[in-house]
Amino acid sequence: MNNKGNSEQGLFSVLGVVLKREFLSAYRSRQELANPLVFFIIVIVLFPLGVSPEPDFLSKAAAGLVWVAALLATMLSLDRLFQSDYDDGSLEQLVLCAQPLYLIVLVKSLIHWSLTGLPLVLLSPFLAIMLHLEVQHIPVLMLTLLMGTPVISLIGGIGAALTVSLRSGGILISLLVLPLTIPVLIFGTGTVQSSIDGLSVAGHFSIMGMMLALALTLSPFAIAAALKISVSD
Amino acid sequence: MSVALLKADELICERDDRILFTGLSFELFSGDVLQLEGPNGAGKTTLLRILSGLFSTFEGGVSWKGQNVRQYYSEFQQDLLFIGHKSSVKTTLTPLENLRFLMGLQQSVIEDELWQALEQVGLAGYEHVLCRNLSAGQKRRVALARLYLSKAKLWVLDEIFTAIDKKGVAQLEAFLVEKAQSGVAIVLTTHHELAMPGVKVLRLGQGVNEQ
Question: What DSSP designation does B109 have?
Answer without folding.
Answer: -
